[in-house]
Amino acid sequence: MIALSKPYIGEAEKIAVLRVLESGMIAQGPEVEAFEEEFSKTVCEHQCIAVNSGTSALHLGLLAAGIRPGDEVIVPSFTFAATANAVSLCGATPVFVDIDLKTFTIDVDAIRAAITTKTTGIMPVHLYGHPARMDLVSEIAEKHGLLLFEDAAQAHLAEYQNSPVGTFGTSAFSFYPTKNMTSAEGGMIVTSDPEIARTAKLLRNQGMERKYENEIVGFNNRMTDINAAIGRVQLESLEKRTKRRREIAKIYDENLLNVTTPFVGENVLHAYHQYTIKSQNRDSLSSYLSEKEVGNGVYYPTPVHQLPSFDLTLDLPNTNIATKEVLSIPVHPFLSDEEIETVIEVINTWT
Question: Of 205, 200, 167, nearest to 27 (Cα)?
């Protein structure tokens, strides 16, 4: 089977973990601080706060930015459930809107139409590694005085108009094993606002900056030094691995037949967390790929607003089309040239 995704933990990561274990400092410590400083270089030196998961980064980031019960936050429904879950965990209401069918990211006209007197924030998702229209989203947020929070969980090193995603507002990245880089599990809150950064640090650590001086009610969402050590090693090769993803995507773009290949907007640098094609006969193609031992996956088969956890009836036509047509194929940087050729051959011979 040609794997759809392939997390890689090599010798360098193992050495880093052993170094932490032998140091005796296993909980949040110097490795976490170093990881935050090093990741900051990928996001224009914005402040970085490491936490134990991408979902925690979304949740604590929103809380630190000021999202409260009774607020409404506009989100796309075509995304992973964690996006909306994080809003709900703040006691706020996720307001689901449609997507642009070409980029799979939040539709800016839908944002404008969804704004009410209760709207406090907008949370675009840079889905599959393609940035949302951040110039227009930022313009809307500024015009209406709304919080802008980026879900950049899938978009490490993606850029929009020469600016890294995660730098347009407060944002969250994920280091889950299948992401473009991993810390085994973990997340990062990114912000240019020192007050948000300080509050996020308090929230992740039981509300404390100094031991036993709890300033606010907080959580235990700390990242361990073991996770941070793995993340630091992975970060060193992130640029190289991302370059390889883009090379593979280019080969697919130039050679795939029978399907719609991913659209890439102007002034966009795609991170290709997923290489997602479209086909009106998606399920047939998926079955054929599996039969030929080519890994594939549907992200996402059910709009978030239709999940039992929300169970809403909404008219989101582009979202509904996407759930029926999208299919992701292998694009991870450990694919061999022979495997890439096999993926292309299988798709091109499917009828």
Answer: 205
